[in-house]
Every structure is written in structure tokens, then in C-alpha cells.
Amino acid sequence: MTKAAIIGAGIGGIATAVRLAVKGYDVTVLEANHTFGGKMHEFWLGKYRFDAGPSLFTLPHLVDELFTLAGRNPSDYFRYTRLDPITHYFWPDGSHVKACADAEKFAQEAEQQLGVPKRAVQEALQKSARLYKGTANTFLQKSLHRLNTYLSPDVLKALGCLSDLGLTTTMHEANANQFSDPRFVQLLDRFATYNGSDPYQAPGTLNIIPHLEHNIGAFYPEGGIYAIAASLVKLAEELGVEFRYNEQVERIITQQNNVTGVETIKGRYAADVVVSNMDVVPTYRRLLPDQPAPEKTLQQPRSSSALIFYWGVRKVFPQLHVHNIFFSQDYKSEFEHIFKYKTVSPDPTIYVNITSKADPADAPAGGENWFVMVNVPHNQGQDWQQLTAETRQAVLQKLKHMLRTDVEALIEEEQVLDPLLIESRTSSFGGALYGSSSNNKMAAFLRHPNFSSKIKGLYFCGGSVHPGGGIPLCLLSAKIVGELTPAVAPSPAKSPK
Ligand code: FAD
């Protein structure tokens, strides 16, 4: 029986477990925490439910695909609806744009509210679609570290997009060249934060992201984002995957450059294949201390992290939706605070996610569950207690001004998440949300591959390796690992239940 040990039950680890089980591996997932999900977990504060980490869900077909692969009907396990509107954007000057799911209506709204030519918005979204279609197969769905990727016809397609790719301009420059309204530029620049990057440094290539949200759609899963992890764990267990919780892996065992298993705080597990879903930096530093580490890769600048205030709010705000953004006055300065000065801007852009808008059961009647997030640098020894206190005040002041309501007086439940907690709960290096940032044009090639070129049988999935962070990319990392691992005959002992 070919055994696979997966280190970590984050979304990447769970999806890899499904793929390897379907391939016929005998799969054990070893998870340090008492439950699955990693960053994607949920909790309750009194009568308010919260998704702790990710809140925006795109490319749901990547989840469906796992159920189909296992011969199941996806909707028997996992259901979701398309959000409309997607996001409600607010600016300090009092203007606002409701980004409707229909791209045409969104363009119309941008024209009405901001005076941005409708045609230009449509063209920007069409360009984003062209870029995505031309490049995704090469840059996101395959290993960039295998020769045969470059021999495929998809590369020719990607090369055809080269001039459009915006490798010579930053994302901000590309957007500012296209639009004169600084508010609409800010709206487009914000997509850089979807992988924890800075639009003033990241290449124009990141302008493929709006396509995911505006042309394909943003979705809300029944039961919240946590339902993605929960439904896939159910599937994995049906396929015979064993999840062992409270079982931190301490070492990856190798013999003559072959992986032979892992050692946890409770014992040893022999394995022919080991997949690390742990952040790649601590994987090398803690689990492979005797192996030479790929220092250049590990030292790539980290993505941003987040400060999150989970608030149970005793009021319903009809002007808000599931996703809401309250922009800062000076976006450039905000990113300089994060990436240059490694601190938090005194006027941060505030993201408020309210899942009770989609599922009223997430909050008591007359209340809302607010997930209030500010982008911050990853942990480099800052005084997070002080930064949290200062940011909380700045956020409350800004919301009071922009919503004309004293939100502080309405908070009846509260919890905070900072980069230190993100790091301690998931082992993400510095509490970075998305592994390394995309703040330079070679970033895609500098992420760690999904396999080890030194240790046979060792693979990597999750947000800190290729193709990057965020739910869809973590699912794609699992897909790539599923393709790279050797085929095995189905195991009779672990046939589906
Ligand atoms: P992780 O979630 O990082 O989990 C790794 C798992 O490995 C953990 O369970 C950990 O306990 C376990 N582990 C680590 N070390 C060991 C060990 N030695 N032994 C055993 N187990 C170990 N993405 C989006 O797509 N949309 C969003 O809106 C979004 N917003 C976000 C907001 C926040 C606040 C955060 C934190 C993240 C957000 N993300 C978002 C990013 C997204 O959550 C992550 O990219 C993704 O969930 C990471 O999954 P992963 O597979 O890398 O594993």
C-alpha cells in the first residue's frame, strides 16, 4: 500500500488528501491543531458566528472539481450562491459604488457615481479576462519548475499575452494609465491585496484578478467559508483519509535523499510520499534542520498580514452588504506604511465583511456579525498590542464619520486577531496571509516549487508555495501535487466507504 503523509489540514492539505486518496494512496493527515481548516476556521462569540480568515470566495468550480473527481455530486456536499452586489465601496469624499455582479451594471454604476467612462470599465474587464485566459494554464495550473510545462502549447498562448501582461509597469501605473479618476484606480489597485501585495510595486500582471471577481463572480457558500473545508474533510473521510488532530509534525524523515516518513509529537509514520501544507519556511527550518534550505526562495519578501476585529454589532446597517470597503484618503501612503515602514497606516482602508447579510442565522435578530479587517505588515517584532489599540481607535473614528453612527457603542462581542496569533495558530511565517508577496515581476518564479528537487517523495502545497496564497491558488497547488505524485494502484484496504 502506498502511503502518503500530509502535514497540516489547511485547505491545501485537505484538497491534496482528496486528490491522493482518489489516486489510490493510503492518506494520513497530521494536524497540529485540534481541528481542520488552518486559516479557514470558524468560531462563535455569543450568538454571532464568524469565519476567522478568508471571506471572499472565487472560482468555486475548483471545489466542485474535487467532488466530481471522487465520483460525487458536488451539490450533495457543498452549495453556494453568486453574490450581488459583490462589494460596496465607500470613499472619504462621500462617494460610493456598489459593484454589481453584472459587469455591465457595474460599469454603469462606476460611470454614474464616479464619472468613469462605462466603455473604459468594460474594456478593463475584457482585458483582465484576456490576460487570465491567456496565462492561467501556464502560470497557475502547472508547476513552473518542470520542463514539460514550457513545452506545452499553453506557453505560446501565454507568450501571445506578453505585451498585455504589464510586466514593465506596476499594477498602479497600468491602472492610472487607463483611468484618470483616482477613486476608480484605487478600486482596481485594491486587487493587489488579494495576494497580500502592494499595487505600487507589484507588476501589472496582477490585473488578471478583477476578472475572477467581476466576470466569473464572487460566491458565498451555504454555511460560510468554513463549509468549504468542512465539506472537503467529509469527502476525504469517506475516501478513507485519516485525520489525526493535536499531532504536530516535528521532523520529516529522510534516507539517502528519499523521504521515508514523518515524526510527530506522538510517534513515527512511515510514508512513501510526504506533502507539507505547513508554510515552507518553518518546514525547512523546523522539520528539515539538517537539509540545505533554498535560502533565496525562503528569503523572498512576505505578503501582508492582517489585524481583524470580530465584532458582534447590535444593529442592522441596510446600506452595507456582505463585502464593504471604506477606502483611505492616501492609498500610496497606506502601502508605504505596510511595506516600507512596516507599520500600520493611521488612516487604513477598512474591509467590513458581514456574513449575516447572506445568512441571517450568523447573528441574532437586529444584529450583524462584523469581520473588520485592516491590512498590516507581517510580524517583524512590532509592538502589536500598541498598534492594535491605535488601529482600533482609527477604525472606529473612520466608521463613525463614514457611517454617521457610533459603532463602538453597538459592539456587544469582540475578539481580535493579529499577525502573532495567525503565526502561532497556523505556523505561517510572520503571520503573512499569503506566503511571499508578488511585489516584483519575478515573484511567480521565485515561489517554492510544489516538489523538492533534493528529496525524492517530498511535495509542498498551500499558500506559501506555487502558485500562491488564497483559496483558489491553494486548491490549484493541491491539483499540481496530485499531478506530480506517482500513480499507484488503488488500495483494497482503503476502498471508498
Ligand atoms: P493554512 O490555512 O496555512 O493551514 C496550515 C495548517 O497546517 C494549519 O492547520 C496548521 O495548524 C498546520 N500545521 C502547521 N505546521 C504543522 C506541523 N508541524 N504539524 C502539523 N500541522 C501543522 N484567501 C481567499 O481566497 N480569500 C480571502 O478573502 C482571504 N482572506 C484572508 C483573511 C485572513 C485573515 C487570512 C488569515 C487569510 C485569508 N486568505 C484569503 C488566505 C487564505 O486563508 C489562505 O491562503 C489559505 O487558507 C491557506 O491555506 P493553506 O492550505 O496554505 O493552509
TrEMBL record:
Keywords: Carotenoid biosynthesis, Oxidoreductase
Record GO biological process: carotenoid biosynthetic process
Stretches assigned to the Amine oxidase domain: 11-479
Record field: transmembrane: none
Gene3D superfamilies, per the entry: FAD/NAD(P)-binding domain (3.50.50.60)
Keyword Oxidoreductase: yes
A single GO molecular function term of this UniProt record: oxidoreductase activity
InterPro entries: Amino_oxidase (IPR002937), Carotenoid/retinoid_OxRdtase (IPR014105), FAD/NAD-bd_sf (IPR036188), hydcarot_desat_CrtD (IPR054840)
Known pathway: Carotenoid biosynthesis
Domain of life of the source: Bacteria
Keyword Cell inner membrane assigned: no
Family as reported in the entry's similarity comment: Belongs to the carotenoid/retinoid oxidoreductase family.
Protein name: Phytoene dehydrogenase
